[in-house]
Amino acid sequence: MYNFEFVKPATVDEAIAALREEDAQALGGGQTLLPTMKQRLAMPSKLVSLGGIADLVGVSSDGATLTLGGATPHAVVASNAGAYPALAALAGGIGDPAVRNRGTVGGSLANNDPAACYPSAALASGATIVTNAREIAADDYFQGLFSTALDEGEIITAVRFPIPQRANYQKFEQPASRFALVGVFVAQYADGVRVAVTGAGNDGVFRWSEAEAALSGSFTPDAVDGLSLSGDDMIGDLHGTGAYRAHLVKVMTKRAVAACN
C-alpha cells in the first residue's frame, strides 16, 4: 500500500466538500477499493470514509417501501430487513461474515461489479437510488460493467425498495469468491413481474424481459420452459462458458419462482 490521506467526515455535506478536492475517492466498506489500491490499479491521494456518517446507516420501512441507508452494512440489512425477506436473505448470503460486516449496500451499487448481488435486487425491485443530488430509477442507473449514472463526487445516501407481493433470489455461487456465477432475483408486484440477472451478462446486470412477460401471465416455473437466452450475450471465462451461464439463468429463474410459490 502507498501513502494517502484519510478523512472521516461526520456529515454528508462534509463528505461532499472533501470529495471536491482533486483525486479524492469515496470509501464505503472498502471491499473492492482497498484491494484495487494494493494492486496499484487505483491510486487516489485521499480517501473520504462514509462509515462515520450516522445518517447514512439504517433500515426502515413504511409498509410499502423498504429504505436502506447508503452506508448500511450487509449484515445489518440481513438482520433488519425483515419487511423484505428476499432482500434480507440476499444480504445474508454475500461473501463471509467479515465481508458482510464491512461491505455496504451503497458501495456495492456504486461499484456495480457484474457479479454482485445487490444490483439484481435493485433492478428487479424497481428501486430508487437516492444520492446527495437527485433520485435515479434503477432502470436508468446501471449502465454497463462497473458503470453507473453517478457523477463524479456524487454519493449514494439511500436506496428505496418497493416491497413486492412475493420475491426470491437464487444464486449459483463461484465457490472461492462467493460472487454470483449467475444470480437471478424475481419479484412479483401487482402490475407484473420483474426479473433481474447478475453474474451472466456481457454488459452487467440486466432484466430478462421475455421471462417477465411469461411470468406476469403465469407465475409458475413452467412458464419459462419455452424461453432461452443466447450464450453469445453472456460472460464466458474459466468458470463457465456463455452457453453454460445462459442455461443457469433459466435454471435459477425457475428455482426463484418455485421458492416464491
TrEMBL record:
It comes from the Bacteria. GO terms for molecular function: FAD binding; oxidoreductase activity. Keywords: FAD, Flavoprotein, Oxidoreductase. The keyword Oxidoreductase applies. Residues 1-166 form the FAD-binding PCMH-type domain. This is Carbon-monoxide dehydrogenase medium subunit. It comes from Thalassovita litoralis.
